[in-house]
Amino acid sequence: QTTLPPYYYNDDPHSFGFSTCRSRWVKILKNIVEDTESEINSSKSNELKKSQGAEIIGKIENLSKDLANDAKLTPFTNDSIPGLKSFNETLSKLKNSPDGPRLKWLTGPWLFLECWLYREVDVFYKERSEWTNFDVFERLKRETFFSSTLGVYELVNRYKKLQDGKAELIKDQELLKVVYEEFIEISLWGNATDLSLLANATLEDIKSVQGSAARAKSRKNIIANDLDLTWDRITISAKLGKPRRVDFVLDNAGFEFFTDVCLSLFLLDFGLVDEVVYHCKTRPWMVSDTMIKDVKIMIDDLLDTSKFPEHRSDIQFFVDSFTKYQNSGQIKTAESEFWTIDLDYGNISPEETQFGGAELWKYFQDSTLVIIKGDLNYRKLTADRHWPRDTPFTTAIGKLADSGIHLVALRTCKADVCAGLSKGKDEELCEYWKSLGNEYGELWCSSGKWAVISYSSGSKK
Ligand code: F6P
Ligand code: MG
Questions:
Q1: Which atom of ligand 1 is nearest to the CA of 446?
Q2: How far, in Å, from the CA of 287 to the mean position of ligand 2?
Q3: 279-319: per-residue pLDDT in tens?
């Protein structure tokens, strides 16, 4: 057994965890307090809700103090909330490891602490009757989507136009592959932090990023690219004549999910797959992740003419197409507690029988392709370990590489961990990042400017 590289730690100034826990978490907690306050002050709140809301705010303020003071973690005490047991188990394992003394907010393993933070906040709401189903991030998710109108218009228009050339495209596999690539990239860059490719740009910018030259330019920033392998997997499966299902392990609601739907509709319309399943989070998670209710919210928001006043017929066409597939059962949603525990995705395996890993392993066995979206999911895939960045992706995902699961990560890089790069690429980007005046070259990988498309066939043979 080879020893695994260490995790990324919050006290490492070379890691993006360092500034994340010192400033980004603080800001996130502050926003949570503000949004809870505005819910308290809204007409929806009765007296009980108000007083429970005040308790929640008190708890969050204490948590903020713990962060500022680099306090130690204390185990969860609520046994009735699913998944917390996993956190406590990991905490006690880590306590007995060389990491023991480091289990503090500003010091310990970044990924574990980040997952813990969101769960601790969630407990405050879950434990209070009037707040159990409150999604403190809902306002933010929707507002971000509303600020993405131009990207939405462009894509519904692109989707509608695609129908005109459909007969021809279906006959010409090479051309179809070009469109596949376009839709994969749309879903990939839908994960970019700044959404700069589509969302916040001017109409002119958007027109230019839709051009093939601009796509070619952003393609250069995809620094590991297994797109061809995913195309082969999908088209070879199509020839076998068995039902084909694509699973999305979703990331963010709103614009990113909208781009995932674009990709899904393309795959279904062109007969590349028969069924699409969206795997959602069971609770508010990492600010903007998609819960099942966010799927309907996105569609309802698209139908809101005050939020998306233009291109109504293209929007309607898009929504009708989505609804048609939902009604026929070809688009479905699923959820699992597994996605919001601390365990890395190497635990999607028959051995993980406590928290849903074994069920997911079984379910994914007959998936044509599991599309795993975004940064946090990628960190869970690779266990957020300090892999040399030219480590093969299939090494970094551990047992999953031999799990029988065909998967692809579509991720814009917003954290330290990365694998699958060619030799020398990391060094080149570190140099480049420093030449722009940044103190630590390694942090190119947390900037959201680069991306990876990394595939595993699920068999090391
Ligand atoms: O940049 C780091 C981060 O805030 C992480 O905390 C988290 O992994 C990620 O971004 C969230 O990004 P995504 O929505 O792409 O998973
Ligand atoms: Mg997310």
A1: 1
A2: 7
A3: 999 999 999 999 999 999 999 999 999 999 999 999 999 99
User: What are all long-range contacts of 61-64, with beta carbons under 8 Å and residues at least 24 apart?
Assistant: 61/33, 63/29, 63/117, 63/120, 63/121, 64/26, 64/29, 64/30
Q: Are residues 93 and 191 in the same domain?
A: no
Residues 6+ apart with CB under 8 A from 24: none
Asked if residues 416 and 389 have their Cβ atoms less than 8 Å apart, the reply is no
For ligand 1, residues with CB inside 6 Å are 16, 20, 114, 191, 251-252, 286, 374-376, 379, 414-415, 446
ipTM of the complex: 0.96
The angle, 0 to 180 degrees and rounded to 10, between the axes of the packed helices 227-240 and 173-189 is: 130
Answer with the one of 106, 136, 166 that is the final residue of a domain. 136
Q: Which ligand is nearest to the CA of 195?
A: 1
Answer yes or no: do 265 and 341 share one domain: yes
Compute, in angstroms, the gap from residue 28 CA to the centroid of ligand 2. 13
Number of domains into which the chain is organized: 2
pTM over 0.80: yes
Q: Identify the DSSP state of 446.
A: G
Give domain status of residue 461, yes or no. Answer: no
Annotate 361-385 with DSSP letters as a single string: HHHHHT-SEEEEEHHHHHHHHTTTB
Q: What is the rounded CA–CA span in Å between residue 11 and residue 111?
A: 13
